Amino acid sequence: MLPVHELLCRTATDSPDREAVVCGDNRVSFGTVDEAATALAAFLASRGIGQGDRVGIFATKSVAEVIAIYGILRAGAAFVHINPQYRDVHLRHVIADCGIKTLFLDGSRARIFAGACGEAGFSGLVVSLSDEMALNRKTFCDVTHLRDIVGSPRQQFRPVDVGPDDLAAIIYTSGSTGMPKGIMVTHRIFHDATVASAEVLHNVSADRIISVTPFSFDGALSQLFTATLVGATLVQQRSSFPKDIVDTLLKERISGFHAVPSLWGVLLQERSPFPQYRYPHLRYVSIIGEVLPAKHLARLRRLLATTQFYLMYGTTEAFRSTYLPPADLDRKPGSAGIPFPGVNLKVVDDAGNQCPPGETGMIVHSGAFVSPGYWSDPERTASTFVNGWLHTGDQGRMDEEGYLYYAGRRDGLIKAQGFRVSPEEVETCIHQLDAVAEAAVIGVPAEEIGTAVKAIVVLQGGANATAKDVINHCRRELPHYMVPSIVEFRPALPKTNGHKINRAALV
Amino acid sequence: MSVNVQDQMQEYVEELAKQDNIDPSVNLFETGLLTSVHVLDLIAYIEERFGIVVSPDDLSIENFGSIDAMVTFVDKAMQPV
After folding, report:
1. What are the angstrom distances between the C-alpha of A501 and each of A180, A439, A442, A492?
2. Are A391 and A153 a contacting pair, CB within 8 Å?
3. CA angle, A481 as apex, B10 and A311 as ends, to 5°?
């Protein structure tokens, strides 16, 4: 098994001049990325950073963040790509939770990060990914520029021997309760998922893959590593405006496009130029994250008549679970497909027994891609990963032929715009308003975006607050996808016997 | 450049982003001040306030990336053809 940073080395040796990463006008070859990653690894090693360390990346789409990911891995450390939408509370949580002492920071995120650090500042090492970034010395005391590291004379670097089960990354995602939790990913998982994805999607070196989603999501990492494995080009898309995405699809002759259903919703909405053009180079589209409304899929298939569609299901805890082969789209409408090679998948009832075909239960996953658990949370790990089986918390059923049908969450976790939203986190935020007595948050079906976040609020006696007050408060505190778009005021909330809010009765 | 358009756009964007004194030249999306979900709000506001029609091909970061960009776009669209 070659770790992904060794796959980079192999591709760079075989085809050094092939285009590896594109971002706007910036185009770099595999040879360049490989050399820069080694220079960066040497620098990190010279600063004593290596195996056992977690290194943060807080950035927007760029060539530099790709170099950072490979450089960190090559140094033997694990990378933590922090969701670029995170603000104060979540940022502080991630930095503290996994003890980030070294951070790769993009200029566009410097102010948000400085704000989260507050008076105390950030005492660790900061590597600036942007040439022009001016950082406040009161907040950041130890700053180096990636440009200088990569541009300086080559340092001696002894390759680090990483084991397949060593930590390669931590991916933070929201759960049904509390703050985001860190899911540990090993070198073996990255390698196996990369090889399996390339096999399923038939990726080849001629592919040109657009990357819209941040690398804080496993789907985006899978594309990056798959492109590296086969020597394909990854095109980093900074703007998610429909016109800009359309321009990139056409200009860069994109052949592979992976996106969450809500992005397709944006591309198909009335204001988007997407339907006006033809995309003869677009070989495949893969869709994961939540269920794409059937009418959107039907419309996309009409617009992209020669494109293959891959519908997938997976959780970050096990990277990828199933895919629906394009040939089965009409035979198995609404299905998330069959397990990836090496994956065992079952649907079980509350007692843990396998459900007969057609019966809904919890989806459990074993075999390939299963995470060793949550970072520094053995209790949650023990209850979620049982005897090698990941208990996804997702509901589903299987038909006689073993095709999976996803049937939503069981624990109130909302999937909105492709992000996992914990109702409890949004409720906690709404409760900060003095006027609020009680709050409950649920997901409701929405036309364009699939699922909308809805808040049901009970006000304190005599208090006044409008829907706009609630939404504005949440906008200040939370990432945009957590902000409720609908607020309903009620005199009381339904409760279960245990006096917990009965979310099921709210839908 | 219309001072009136500049002031109104500045005020509206600051309300959307929940932040005062936004540098009108700064990229609102790359800095995370706004996200793509705000785009429809911006279009609705511009169409209603200035009586212009935003076509799908106008929906780019070049036209909507910063307050200055939006002002330039609105000024251009409001000019008699």
Report:
1. 22, 9, 11, 10
2. no
3. 130
Cβ of B43 within 8 Å of Cβ of A271? The answer is: yes
Q: Which of B18, B27, B59 sits opposite A243 (nearest CB)?
A: B59
Q: How far apart are CA A465 and CA A44, in angstroms?
A: 51
How many residues comprise chain A?
507
What's this model's pTM, rounded to 2 decimal places? 0.86
Tell me how far apart the alpha carbons of residues A52 and A29 are, in angstroms, rounded to a whole number.
30
Distances (CA, A) of A389 to A169, A288, A315, A370: 21, 21, 13, 8
Give the one of A60, A244, A247 whose C-beta lies nearest to B30's C-beta.
Answer: A60
> Which DSSP helix (H) or strand (E) runs through B15?
helix B3-17
Parallel, antiparallel, or unpaired: how do β-strands A19-23 and A26-29 relate?
antiparallel
Amino acid at A393: G
pLDDT digits (tens, 9 = 90+) for A295-326: 789 999 999 999 999 999 999 999 999 999 99
State pLDDT tens for residues A92-149.
999 999 999 999 999 888 888 888 888 888 999 999 998 776 677 778 889 999 999 9
Task: Please answer whether residues A44 and A50 qualify as being in contact, where contact means their C-beta atoms are separated by less than 8 angstroms.
Answer: yes
Confidence check: pLDDT of A482 > 80? yes
Cα separations in angstroms, A86 against A64, A65, A172, A236, A264: 20, 17, 11, 20, 23
Tokens linked to A459: 């006000």
**If contacts are CB pairs under 8 Å, which of residues 46-65 in chain A contact chain B?**
60
DSSP per residue, A97-150 = HTT--EEEE-GGGHHHHHHHHGGG-EEEEEEE-STT----TTTEEEEEEHHHHH
> HSE of A172 in the Cβ direction (CA atoms, 13 Å)?
26
Amino acid at A336: A
Q: Which residues contact A372 (CB under 8 A, 6 or more apart)?
A: A165, A184, A186, A381, A385
ipTM of predicted complex? 0.77
Tell me which H or E stretch contains A234: strand A233-236
